[in-house]
C-alpha cells in the first residue's frame, strides 16, 4: 500500500504536534504555570523558543501542555459521540419504527441549535471543568454521526447480503455488526474526522470564551484569548497557539482523507 | 465497394487501456450501410460496448484507440475537432442505453426531455419540436402521447421509459442509432415489442441501427448482419441468415446452443417427499398513510396461492415483474408476513403474522454482486452459515467448507479473494455454496441467472442441476425467462397480477397453454431451433385461440 503525498503531509503534521507535545513537556526546563515577571513579552529566542506571555510564562511549554488538554478533551468527546452515534444510528435504521422516530426526534432537536449556543448552554449548566467540556462536546456531536450512520445503514440494508445473513440464521445484532456496519465505514470515516476537527475547534472556542478547562491550566483557546490584549506588544503570543490549531486541524483532515481512500475497496485495489 | 457508399466503416480498429498492453478491442473491421441493422454480439468484457462508444467519441478515461480508422459518411472521425464530434452526436448519431430509468432525468417532464435536443440546437421551433415528439411517441406505439408528455419518468414503467428514450434518440432523424443492450433491463414480454418498435421507428427515417447485445437468439432475427466478438476479437462477421444457417466459428455455435431450448427436465421417480407446501396464501402490503388518523389500508400483492415442492424436483414460478412471484418466495423464506393461508417447510409450520426464518429453506439471489458482503472473503462467506448458532470444531468447518467450495467448482486460489475480485459467474457459485452448505431442504432461486452472461448461465444452471441430484433439495425456481424455465423445471406455475393463472407439468404447459396470459408469454419468446440440414432457425410459437 503506497501512501499518497496528502497522507504523508497529514501524518507528518500529526507527528509534529505529537513531538511538540511530548518533547515540550519532557525537554522544557519551565513549568506551564511558572510565572516570571522579569521576562514578560519575550520574543522567540534560544531560551524561550516561542517567547513568553504577559506573566512571563514560557509559550512553548504552554502550547505543549495545552495540546495534551485539547487533544485529550476532543478525543474523549469524539469517542463518546462515535459510540453513541453509531449505536443509535445503526439501531434506528435497522429496527425502524418508534425507535427510529425517537432517535431522529432527539437528534433533530439537538441539531436545531447552533452548536456553539448549545455548548454554551450545556457548559453554563455543568460549570467549567474538563468532564463538563467532554460531555458537552459529545452531546453536540452525536447527532451528525447518528444521521450519517443511519443513512449509510439504510442504504446497506437494501442489499441482498443482509437478507442472506438473516436467512442463514444470524440474529439481528450479528447481522448489523458483522455484515452491515463494516460496509458503512467510508461515510463513517468522513463524518468522524470532520466531527473530530469540529470538536478541536469548539474546544478552542469554549476556552477562548473562558468556558473550557478552567485557567490557569493552558489551552490553545485560552492562550489566544489572553493574547488578544497584547497583539501590539507581542504578536508571537497569538501566532504559536494559532499555528498549533491550524496544523492539527489540517493534519486530521488529511489523515481522514487517506483513511477513507484506504478503506474504499475499489480505490485501495486500484493502486 | 468504395467507402463513400457506406454510412459507417470501421477499419482495423484497436482500442487499449493506457495501463495495459493487451487490447480490449483487437483489430476489428466492420461496416454498415444506410438503413441497415448490424448486431454486435458478445458477453460482457468482449469489447462490444467500447467499440460502440469509440464511434461516439465516448471512450472512458484511459482507453485510447491505438490504431485503425472510423469513417462516418466518408469522413474520418479522428480528424474531427471535439466541437465537430459534439455536433455529430444527437444530430447524426444518437444512442439508446440499457437502463432507461437511469438515462432519463428524473426531475424533468417527458416533453422537455424529448424536445430539448431540437430546441438546444436551434434547428426546430417549439411547436415543430412538440409535433415531432408526439409523432415519435406514436411511432414507438405509445397510446395517448399528449398525456405521457406531461409525466415524469418515475410515473412510467421501464418499457415505457425505454420507448421514450428511443423517441428522444430519434428526434433529430439521426443517420445512425446505437442501441447498447436496449432491452436487457426489461421484462421478457416487452423486450420483443420494444426491439420491434425501435427498429420500425428507425426504418421510417431510414436510420441505420447498431444493436449491441449479449443475446444472439434475441437479435439475430432482426439484424441484417451480425458481428460476434469475444475478448476483443472479431469471431465471426456475416449476414444474419447465413450465420444462423451455417455458423462458422465454434464460439458462435456455443452461443447459439446456449440459447436453444433444451429437453425439459424429467420428474425424478420416487420423489414423493414434500419439502414445501403453500396453501391458499395471500400477502398484503400496508399502504402508507399520509396522516395517522386515516384508516389503515393494504394492497393485496398475492391472492390465494397454493403450491408444493417435492424433494429433488424443480418447480418454476413464472410471471413478469409485479406479478407477485417474488413475494411468494419471500413468504416461504420467512422474510415477509402473510395474511392468510399456511406455509410448511419440511413439515414445520411457518407463522404468517411476522417474518419467521427457517434455515432449512435457503435462497439464491438474482444479483450476485449485491448478495455477498463486500468485505468478506469467499472462504468467510461460505463458512459462516456453519458457525451460526452452534459450535463445530475448526477441522469440521474447514473440511466441510473446502468440500462445498470444490463442489461448486471454485479453485483454491480464489478462497481468499473478496467479491469485487471475482467474475459474475464465480460470485454466483459462491452464493450457491453459501446457500447449500447447511444442506437445506428447499432452495428458493430468485432469478438466479438473469444477471449473468448467456454462456455463464448455462454453466450455473448445469451446476445447480448437478448439486440437486447430489443433495436432493427441492427447488422453487422464480424466473421471467421462459427458455431457462423450460430447461430446468418439471412443473411450472404461472402468476399474473398476484394470482396463479395456470399450473401443470412443464412440457404440457409449454405445448398446450390454457390461459391467455400464458399464451402471450410463450408467443413473445422467440424459439431458436437447430435442424441438422438447415442450421439454426428462429420461430415463434403459434397457438390456436380455440382453447378456452
Account of the protein in words:
The complex is a heterodimer of chains A (271) and B (548). Chain A is mostly helical and 271 residues long. Chain A has eleven helices and no strands. In chain A, helix 2 packs parallel to helix 10 and helix 6 (160-167) crosses helix 7 (172-180). Chain B is an alpha/beta fold. The model of chain B has no long low-confidence stretch (mean pLDDT 85). The N and C termini of chain B lie far apart (57 Å). In chain B, strand 21 (526-531) and strand 22 (535-540) form a beta hairpin. In chain B, the strands form five sheets. Chain B has a six-stranded mixed sheet with strand order 6-7-8-3-9-10, sandwiched between helices. Chain B has a six-stranded mixed sheet with strand order 16-17-18-13-19-20, sandwiched between helices. Chain B has a four-stranded antiparallel sheet with strand order 2-1-4-5. Chain B is built from 19 helices and 22 strands. The longest helix of chain B is centred in the last third of the chain and has 18 residues, at 454-471. The A-B interface holds A 159-161, 163-170, 174, 179, 182-183, 265-266, 269 and B 333, 335, 357, 359, 361-363, 365-367, 370-376, 384-385, 388-389, 418, 420-421, 431, 434, 438.
| Main structural class of chain A | mainly alpha
* Number of discrete helical segments of chain B: 19
> What is the spatial order of strands in the main beta sheet of chain B?
6-7-8-3-9-10
Annotation, overall tally of beta strands of chain B: 22
SS-based class of chain B: alpha/beta
Distance between the termini of chain B: 57 Å
Largest sheet of chain A: none
**Helical segment tally of chain A?**
11
What fraction strand of chain A? Answer: under 5%
Secondary-structure element order of chain A, as H and E?
A: HHHHHHHHHHH
**What summary fits the major beta sheet of chain B?**
6 strands, mixed
**Rg calculated over all Cα atoms of chain A:** 22 Å
The backbone outline of chain A, from C-alpha atoms, is: elongated
Helix percent band of chain B: 25-40%
Task: Determine the strand fraction of chain B and express it as a percent band.
Answer: 25-35%
Q: Let me know the number of strands of chain A.
A: 0
Show unreliable segments of chain A: none
What radius of gyration of chain B results from the CA coordinates? 25 Å
Ranges of chain B where pLDDT stays below 50 over 5 or more residues in a row are none
Largest interface: A-B, 18 and 27 residues
